[in-house]
Amino acid sequence: MDTDKLYDVIMIGAGPAALSAAIYTTREDIDTLLFERGVPGGLAAVTDWVDNYPGFPDGLSGLDLAEGLRKQAERFGAVIELGEVLSIRDEGDHKLLETTSGEVKAKAVLLAMGSDYKKIGVPGEVEYYARGVHYCATCDGAFYRDKRLVVVGGGNSAVQEAIFLTRFATHIDLLVRSDHFRASDVLVKELAKHADKITVHMNTTTDEIVAVDNKIVKVVGTDKTTGNKVDFPTDGVFIFAGLIPNTQFLKDTCILLDEIGFVLTDEHLQTRMPGVFAAGDVRSGATMQIASAAGEGATAALKLREYLEGKPHPIAN
Amino acid sequence: MPKNITIFTTNTCAYCVQVKKWLGAKGMTYEEVNLDQHPERQAEALEISGAYTVPVTVVTQQDDSKEVIVGFNLAKLAPAVAS
What we know:
The complex is a heterodimer of chains A (317) and B (83). Chain A contains 7 helices and 19 strands.
């Protein structure tokens, strides 16, 4: 990273949205720097298996997809800086970003920080993080060979990762707060094939994670249909209960966020700060799909180009 | 320069790839213990880190002191391998 240079575009994040955008910008010789605080590929990289990304008829691992996107962007000249952006300021003809590696300037910015799995805020969750409470099955699942697990959530991630965890666990209780899955029908049908190992509990809240001698022993939930407390004996808990956007550093800017914290944009993917665009899971209204993120990244790249060419879109109020 | 570096990994862990790539870019060699291939060493990783997670990177310094870094944590990894 060159702190004296004025970059054409800085992308905050290096998930599918940013990497797709970077493929487009760098192919057109738009000088592009990406900031990633975790792993290139974002949540896609820690997803066990991706079956719905176009062009891969047999599916592929999230890690392979992330690596492919990264290599493709780097082939055209994208530079990925490992670090975190702490603030963004509009300086008129450029944006000034304060980062963990120093201050850096760009003519335009793409917000593509993605999102992380949400904490559910129950007793035991924080205390036993990484010591029985987990948010990444591909990272931590191997520690549960021949153990019992609880998985919390009813969306695609929860179902997909519960299926993945059957490689290791003897039994999984899947706790779904609602009376229906948010996961796709295809995944729910796949889940049914694992009924020997996965027991689904609909209408069941997760209330407490209980440990004895620093080891998780059970999850206490409530069956909402009866109001009765239910114990789920377990050795560990994996939580995939919704996503929270990584937008904390935008709170004191003019960039508008929705009530959850996702970035509001106009139809050109532009935020309230001129020259600052958003794409992928961080954007309000995003569909939280890897293919959608990649598509939005491509769209954002074209909008960034128009902005850099002096064809800015008016800021919507 | 550390005396040696050991990384506990699994096949599917993206953060493990990131640690290996980062160390490789710095020209550093390391021993990898893949827990999918060596599940018998899982307890060792757990004892060292106190966490049921990978990557766990153990940096042994020239004076045989050890630093343990859990996850892909550059704020801890970079100074550990620089000393």
